[in-house]
Amino acid sequence: MRPIGVFAFVAIALASQAVEACSCAWHGSPCRAFDETAAVFIGRALEINPVMDEGYEQRLVRLEILQALKGVSGNRIEVVTGRGGGDCGYTFRRGDTYLVYAHRRDGAKRLYTGICSRTQALSDATEDLEYFKA
Description:
By secondary structure, this protein is α+β, with helices and mostly antiparallel strands.
């Protein structure tokens, strides 16, 4: 095979593989997000482990609940998110504190979150925290 033929073959093979892409509309105001989300809480990430969920590799994040705002109770909770990149997963870091907006898929017990929600580092959540105080 000629070099150009090899290049074309490789390019076509790579282009034919499944591509993940995250596409989401902005999640709106804290008020809207709070009303439309199953669970909202402030939590500290304790563990982050890979898990298979709905046929995809995801991340299972165990969090210590520091303040329950909606739909959660107890001291600890688990939230599933993508790996990051093209699958809309939120990048949690062990030991950091977050304001988490999580939803349930089709009535499932598990909670899910990602970059399409208002989930964010607590240090970036000023607008949301002001809304909760009001």
